[in-house]
Model the fold of this input.
Amino acid sequence: MTEVLIKITNMSKAFPTGEGDFLALKDVNLSFIKGEFTGIVGPSGSGKTTMLNIIGSLDTQSSGEVEVLGKEIKSLSAKESAELRSRHLGFIFQTYNLLPVYTVYENVEFPLLLLKISPDKRHKMVMQALEWLGLTDKQKSRPAQLSGGQCQRVAIARAMVKEPSLVLADEPTANLDTENSLHILDMMKKLNQELGTSFIFSTHDQKVINYLRRVIRLVDGMVAGDDTQAG
Done:
């Protein structure tokens, strides 16, 4: 039976401006199932990052319904939103957002500290994530000692360490050259296939789009296309 992870119904998002509200998203209807490798695609200002932020409970919709893993985003308290993110969601950002004074090991371990997992189990989970991403030899390094591609691999390891149901990736290849971008995408696709983790990207990078199995196109905050492809 197909498991629906996300259901979005008649969802809009407005931001107040000096000249009235700006509608960043308009009457969006979408659903996502377990195991997706999907991109929300569109030019800057199309609403794709706003949609990713709402799915990730970093923001809430202005109207309509957004249900993520059985939870209605708008009805969650701040504590409940934080728990949803910490337990079930992984985030990958284009700027990596690594803690510069922490080692690679400590950066990957950080999400597990919030879950109060025992030290022995944390160590096993961190080493497994580092092995997935080919980073075991960099575990004692700090971000400043790494290349851009290595930093993004650490960010992916941090997102994957708790084996989340869903990973949200906002322009994850924006600061990488072509070789590193393709390497990162190969790794994420492998994790999707082997672990069954669902990935949703926000992107306008054609290299990313070529990897996707489903492409949702946004234009001016509205869904202009929803297509499957070989990926």
About this structure: The helical segments are 48-55, 78-88, 104-114, 119-132, 148-160, 178-195, 206-211. Residues 38 and 203 are 10 Å apart (CA to CA).
